[in-house]
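Whether sequence alone determines local backbone shape is best considered at the level of individual chains. Part of our work consisted of pairing the sequence of a single chain with a tokenised description of its backbone. This step matters because it turns folding into a mapping between discrete strings. For completeness, the protein is quoted in full, as a sequence line and a line of structure tokens:

_____
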Amino acid sequence: MAAPIDPETRAAALADTLAGMSVNAASKKHGVSRRALMEWREQSGLGAPVPQTPVREQIWAEVDLYLLEALQTMRAHLRIGRDEAWIKDHDTAGLAALHNAIAEKVARMVEVEEAATMGAEPTPIRQAG
């Protein structure tokens, strides 16, 4: 059985993870196991650590690029949908289904991104009913 960790060490390790230090780095710095530090985070209501800022920024940059491309695709769908000759020659059900699927994903991603910037839980734009 391992010796109990003093509260100061526990608090310092938790504080380091809250300040953005990785769990691995904080566990090495304070001489505690990674598993113990993760358990302390759970017990403290902190949950899983948030990725460090550079990774988080990269993730949001990718989300922004995805949203931009999705919106550009939807704009192209709208242009195609106004072309009467194209509509007469093609089955529009597939285009409509794709457009709706992208629109739902974009709406959800915007909800999540908006909630993340406000530090809140995402709330659905449309309630399932």
About this structure: The mean pLDDT is 81.
